[in-house]
Each structure stands twice: as structure tokens, then as C-alpha cells.
């Protein structure tokens, strides 16, 4: 048994390049339940990140009582991370679930029955459609529903109502992944596969803290790093994450400067001739545009703009240029930062320049974050047209009209689909009067929360919220619908490397909760949406019907599902699309033949100008005659819109910790996870903290032009001048509103987005930091991850020994007394019993600048007394190591 809170990645199973990643079956059962007592194991996969690890759910007496990884699954070979082990089932099996619909009566939400709740929705919907037409309606959904649910929503929205105002929180998440793939290759679709980890010689992680955000993928990388032919690692991240700790080169750039760095790396490839001219000539377009754009970005120019060492830029480029097989991953450090699409396209460009695509070990993973973000994009619940069809191509619109048997004119295609931030703007202005929010919590996750709260609270706006819990967003609803969650409904979803999994219903939902699919189908029925023959638009009886309809929609498209049936998904491993008659076993890597989906009649998009976001349009695109070639796209570097100045001297960036998922509706309801990260914090660098006289645990006010948070400080390993806040902490477990205790990271972020992908810029803003009070002990930040105390970073901290090597840098034996000799057990994040000596720091009046570094000795920051994040007996997980080739105990059986 192993404590998987303290040891996030579990036991190492090293392997060599080209070898089989050894199986390791991770299993957790509820306290007191032994394996022989489990009634059934039900096949599923984890929905707490985009990795989508295959697992089985343990059921006893009609309740979920645990999980175990599926050894046969190509994604995880049996492993599960902390969220999968604890939150997947604990996060839905609580008494706090919504069990009945709620409606607003005289300002208060009260319980009601389904007919009353649905009637109220249908009445308002019908009235608005009659009076104001389809543009009065907007749908804001998720990256966490099942494929079948998105497809139902997409069809009812596009063919039933005919509104272009439809998007998902995928806009906040991986809109840039889709955009960069469309721009470079003509269509969405992940070129690489997780198995590229097994084959590569180098791994580049661009703004991706994979160690915390896809912990099982990181386990696979760790096992290669521990094997005989360790791949090189390059990390681009302003914080010293676990990834950075193990990197050969860590480019800790200034937030917001990714594009400049990328141009520098590309320039080095040209200068040293590390390019594949044959491949470029045969399979790409516009290389001259790229070489012109990068011309001025010498390593020295990059160093100045990005705040990194020129030598490190050279070393990183050399690794890319001289390795035979490079795997690249890109995530929010790029997608949620300035010039997101332009910067992300440069990763595609690096691979195209070297002809490194479609071969083992040469993967590009423009990562997803959410488990089912890919399906939202495929099905078009994000506003795109289903099956990666192009809204600017009338033939594609006609195909859908024929498939659904509706008039093509109903399907919105006269303008680009409305993105989430614009939907909020229309709601603010009043043209949208009906907003249906499913499986997302914008009152915590959208930028500039003071504004979002105002919009959701508008009297004129009718808000439907469909969730498992009474969230911050649900508080603003006119109707709240209780949804069935994971394990309580059947459906499919597709992970980061196009692997499709079936998740079967294991238990009944609580109370009257219903699946999102049945809710959407019910709405469609009550609205009486019909096709041209007068038949119901959505006549599906259940998920498998919806899935079959979806298979037809994908026939001949890049995401071809026609060869993947429910039956085929039962038993062994998930299957990677495209899968059809020609490729009955699925497809491990796209573009093995370097034939890209850029043909004008086939492509998903005609592309954009990456600097301004202007669309290229059909004429100009056809004139380019792409003919199956990829396109080198770029833009010139532009500094972030908000940069530090005298009033707001710090750069503010936000992100995640390993122990929580988003707004914590599931993870905070798992005891072991919540203990590990019980409350909000901000990270400050040791030099900045010293300069301001701020000690570990002190309470600071962080303020931007939009709002304020007041939270304790973790003095950590972050770039000087940068402040990091986790965005997990809203208010549902803290009194319901920010009044008096604002702590949500998005109180401070900006209403700004990338011109191409429209993804909000969550990772850059200017803020000021002021100390407001002494802390009662260390901040509640985890000590095992990127938020560990400054200087305690040696790998191995994951075994609960954080703090062991910090003394040399910050701690002196005397300073221990400041925190009461480590009385804090860390179990519940409660403070230690020692107070900070009053003399150490004046309580008020500390300006953010101007204190000489020497005024406060660095030894005042006692890193050594901060306790490790501790799991406890209920964090103990069983790991089994089947012999290679042996049938894993959950192998092909289900
Ligand atoms: N534990 C956990 N795992 C998750 C999730 C979760 O909430 N919790 N959510 C899932 C989802 S939906 C997503 S989208 C993914 C996100 O996964 P990641 O993208 O890995 O997570 P983040 O912490 O948002 O951001 C990654 C890193 O970007 C860095 N960064 C900040 N600004 C910049 C910049 O300007 N440039 C660069 N290069 N880096 C910068 C941050 O320091 C941070 O370490 O995680 C998925 N997995
Ligand atoms: N500052 C800052 N903000 C960010 C980010 C950041 O890095 N920094 N990251 C952004 C990213 S990448 C993302 S993905 C978003 C995530 O932001 P959100 O989507 O708002 O976060 P979640 O907490 O995942 O919200 C999902 C909701 O769906 C509910 N739910 C779960 N399963 C089901 C189901 O089956 N049916 C229904 N109906 N409901 C269900 C959950 O209870 C929860 O309330 O946040 C974004 N916001
Ligand atoms: S890596 Fe992601 S999918 Fe796998 S168990 Fe962890 S949270 Fe779930
Ligand atoms: Mo995300």
C-alpha cells in the first residue's frame, strides 16, 4: 500500500526506448471494503483530465466503492493518478448532490418537480423565440459531458433553434489547440499519441505542467527518464514546476512572451540548417514567410524580451534540432497567454521544419485539458459544425442539412460561431435573454468575476443551470436542473490522443437527477422540434441511438467513428479514431503519409491572419492551392496588452495544483484530496518576498485594475516579479460569496482573448501586492508540487519530505521558532501554534517597492518548518505489477 497523496505518481517502473511501458494496476477501495465483497466491476474511464485513463468502477450494494485501472488500456496500462483514484467516485457519491429541480420563486430557489421546471424553461424559450427569434438564445456547455450529449445539444441548437450562440468552457480550455491544428494542418485532430513517450529522444513541454495536470502521462515520462536511454527534457514555464526540476533546459520566460521565444528557437533551426528541405518542399507552404518573421529573433533578442539566458535558447534549439525524435506538448501556458494561436502554431512549425510528424516518437500533442473537450469540438457544441465541417463551405452545411433532414438555411453559417466571451457580452447588453449553462461554473472560471456575477444576476436574463451541485453559478439560476454524473449514465468520450472510451452506467443517480442527454432530449421533445418530414428532430431513445447518429455524421470526415461501436469498446482498450473499414483497429498517429486535410473542399477552416484574427476566406485560400500540404503560419510578436507598471508592478499568472480539479466541486468532496490543498494561496518569489518583508503564510492583498483577492503567501520557486494564483477556489464552501474574503483568482483576470481562438488570457495581468497581516503559520499550499516552498525542490519531495533541503537557502535553525517548531501537521491545513515574532516585520505600511534587500534577512523565511502535504491512511492505494505478457487481472475482461 502506498500513500498516493504524498506520492502523486506512484512506484517507478523504468523502461527503455521502444519498450513496453510496464503495467501497474492501481486500485483503491472504500475503507472497510475488501475485494471479494465487490458485487461488480463496471467499465469506464476517468473524467478528471484529458488523459482519459481506462478504469473499472467497483460497485457494492448499488453504490460506487472504488476504482481500479485497466491494464489492457493503451492510455494508462493500469495506472491512475490521485484525482482518478479518489475524486472520480468520491466526488459524486456525496449527500450534497442536487436531487430535485429548483425554480426561482420571489427571488429564492425552491424545490419542484421536473414537469414544472421544464415547463418554465419551455415557456420562456417559446416566448423569446416568438418575440425575438433564435438570436435571443445561447447555450454554454462543457468539456465534461459525453459525446452523445454534445451531439444532441448541437443538433437541437443548430437545427431546432438555429442559434450561432453556442459554446463550451472548451473556449477557456483548448480552443487554441483546435485553432492551431486548423491553421497548420487544415483540421482539428491530434497528430501524436501518448505512446510517443515510449519512442522519443527528447520531450518539449510548452507551458504544460504535465506532472500535476496529467499525472499518469507524467508517470510514463518519469519511467522513460528512469530508464537506460533517458530522453532530454525542455520545459518552458515561468515557475519551477516538477517538470522544470527534471528538465535539461528550463526556459523560465516572462509570462506573455511565448511567441518571441518560439521565433528564437525556429531561427536557430534555420541558422544551423537543422531542417528537412525535402519535406518542406514536398509537404508545406509559406516557409519564406516563416523565415522572414523569425529573422530578428537572435538568442540575445529573445533573452532581452523573454528574460531568459541566450545560451539556454541555443541549448534548447540544439536539442530540438539534433534529436531524431521529439515529442512536443503544448498547454495553458501557451493557450491562455498572449498571442496564443500564433505561439502554438510555432510548435507545429518546429515539427514541420524537421519533417518530424506522423512517425513514432515525433508526436505533436496540442493538449486538451478536460476529459471530453475533444468531443465538444467534434460535435460542434462549441459553435463549430459537427464532424470538423467548415461553416464557410456551403457543401458542408448542405451535408448536415441532409443528414438532419432540415432546411440548410436554419443552420447558422452566415458568420463565425459566437464565442463564450461574446455570449456573455450579448447577455450583458440584453440581446441574449435565455442562457442555458450545462456542466460548467463560469461564476468561478471566467475572467473578471465581478463582471460575470453582474451579468448572471441580470433580471432580464433567464438562466438555466444543469449541474451535480449547488455551485456559485447555480446561485444565479432561474431554473436549476439536477444532472446525473459520471458512473450514473452511459456514454462515450475521446481523450487527448483520439482514444475513444465507453463509460458505462454503474449506479443509479441520486434522487430525481437525470442524465444530461435525457434532459436535452426532453427539452427538444417539449419544444416540438421537427424535421422536414414532420418527424421529431431528435427521436433517439438513449445514448447508443445518439452514438449511431453521430457515427453517420463522421463518415468520411477526419474524425471518422464509423468503425467504433459500443460493442467494440467493451472489453479491452479504448480505440483511436479515425477508425473505419480501411482502418478497423483505429489509427495511432495522423499524417504518417504527410497528407494533410488542407484541401479547400475538405478542410475545417480557411484560416486566419494570426495577428489580427481576420479570416482568410474561401477565395484567398483556394488561390493558395494547398493540395494536402501543411501551412507555416505565424505573426509578428506583440507585447502583452497589460504589462507591469509603477502602480501594478507584478505579472500575475494563474493555474492548477495536482490535488484539485477546477472549481473543486468533485475534488473538495474527497477528503484526502481536500486535506492536501484546503484553501487558496498565492506564490511569490523569495527575492520579492524578502524585498517586501513578506514571510511565508503572511496575508497579502493582490489587486488588479478589476478586483482584489486577500490570501496567504507561499514563498516559492517562481520567476522574480511574477505572482501565481491557483484558480480552484471559489466560494461554495466559503459562505457562497466573496464578501469580505475574496480568494478566486479570476477576480483579477482580464476580459481579453486571443484574436484567432478567442481563448481568454488567464495567464497574464498586472497586479500590485500588499502585505495586510501576519500569518498564523505556513500557507495551505501543497509542498509536494510546483507550489513547494522555495529551495525545497529536489525531486523526491513527492515522498513527503518537502522542506528537507531548504535550510541552506532560507532557513536557519533559529528561525524555526517563528512557526512554533512545526506544530502544524498539515493534515487539515490548519496553522501551527507559533506566531510570527512581532518584531520581524512591521504589521502595516510596507510599500511594495523601495525596501532594500538587506532590510529583511532572507533567513526570516523558514522554509524548513513547512510540513509536507500528508495523506493519511485513507490515501493508501494498492499497486500490483503483473508480469509482462501476463493477463492483467482486469485485462480483457470487463
Ligand atoms: N490537477 C489538475 N489537473 C488538471 C486540471 C485541474 O484543474 N487540476 N484541469 C485539466 C484541464 S481542463 C486543463 S486545461 C489542463 C491544464 O494543464 P496545464 O496547462 O498544465 O496547467 P496550468 O497550471 O493551467 O498551466 C500550466 C503552466 O503554465 C505556466 N505559465 C503561466 N504563464 C505562462 C506563460 O506566459 N508562458 C508559459 N510558457 N507558461 C506559463 C504556469 O506556471 C503553469 O505551470 O489540466 C487538466 N488537468
Ligand atoms: N484564472 C484561470 N481561470 C481558468 C483557468 C485557468 O487556468 N486560470 N482555466 C480554464 C480552463 S482550462 C477550464 S477547462 C475552465 C474550467 O472551468 P469550469 O468548467 O467552470 O470548472 P468545473 O469546476 O470543472 O465546472 C464543471 C461543472 O460541471 C459539473 N459537472 C460535472 N459533471 C457533470 C455532468 O456530468 N453533468 C452536469 N450537468 N454537470 C456536471 C461540476 O459539478 C461543475 O460544477 O476554467 C478556466 N478558467
Ligand atoms: S491522469 Fe487524468 S484521467 Fe488519468 S487518473 Fe489522473 S485525472 Fe484521471
Ligand atoms: Mo481546461
From TrEMBL:
<feature type="region of interest" description="Disordered">
    <location>
        <begin position="870"/>
        <end position="894"/>
    </location>
</feature>
<dbReference type="GO" id="GO:0046872">
    <property type="term" value="F:metal ion binding"/>
</dbReference>
<dbReference type="GO" id="GO:0042128">
    <property type="term" value="P:nitrate assimilation"/>
</dbReference>
<keyword id="KW-0560">Oxidoreductase</keyword>
<dbReference type="GO" id="GO:0051539">
    <property type="term" value="F:4 iron, 4 sulfur cluster binding"/>
</dbReference>
<keyword id="KW-0479">Metal-binding</keyword>
<dbReference type="Pfam" id="PF00384">
    <property type="entry name" value="Molybdopterin"/>
</dbReference>
<keyword id="KW-0534">Nitrate assimilation</keyword>
<feature type="domain" description="4Fe-4S Mo/W bis-MGD-type">
    <location>
        <begin position="39"/>
        <end position="95"/>
    </location>
</feature>
<feature type="compositionally biased region" description="Low complexity">
    <location>
        <begin position="773"/>
        <end position="801"/>
    </location>
</feature>
<keyword id="KW-0004">4Fe-4S</keyword>
<feature type="region of interest" description="Disordered">
    <location>
        <begin position="773"/>
        <end position="843"/>
    </location>
</feature>
<dbReference type="GO" id="GO:0043546">
    <property type="term" value="F:molybdopterin cofactor binding"/>
</dbReference>
<dbReference type="InterPro" id="IPR009010">
    <property type="entry name" value="Asp_de-COase-like_dom_sf"/>
</dbReference>
<dbReference type="Pfam" id="PF01568">
    <property type="entry name" value="Molydop_binding"/>
</dbReference>
<dbReference type="InterPro" id="IPR006656">
    <property type="entry name" value="Mopterin_OxRdtase"/>
</dbReference>
<keyword id="KW-0411">Iron-sulfur</keyword>
<dbReference type="Pfam" id="PF04879">
    <property type="entry name" value="Molybdop_Fe4S4"/>
</dbReference>
<dbReference type="GO" id="GO:0016491">
    <property type="term" value="F:oxidoreductase activity"/>
</dbReference>
<keyword id="KW-0500">Molybdenum</keyword>
<dbReference type="InterPro" id="IPR006657">
    <property type="entry name" value="MoPterin_dinucl-bd_dom"/>
</dbReference>
<dbReference type="InterPro" id="IPR050123">
    <property type="entry name" value="Prok_molybdopt-oxidoreductase"/>
</dbReference>
<protein>
    <submittedName>
        <fullName>Molybdopterin-dependent oxidoreductase</fullName>
    </submittedName>
</protein>
<comment type="similarity">
    <text>Belongs to the prokaryotic molybdopterin-containing oxidoreductase family. NasA/NapA/NarB subfamily.</text>
</comment>
<dbReference type="InterPro" id="IPR006963">
    <property type="entry name" value="Mopterin_OxRdtase_4Fe-4S_dom"/>
</dbReference>
<dbReference type="InterPro" id="IPR041957">
    <property type="entry name" value="CT_Nitrate-R-NapA-like"/>
</dbReference>
<keyword id="KW-0408">Iron</keyword>
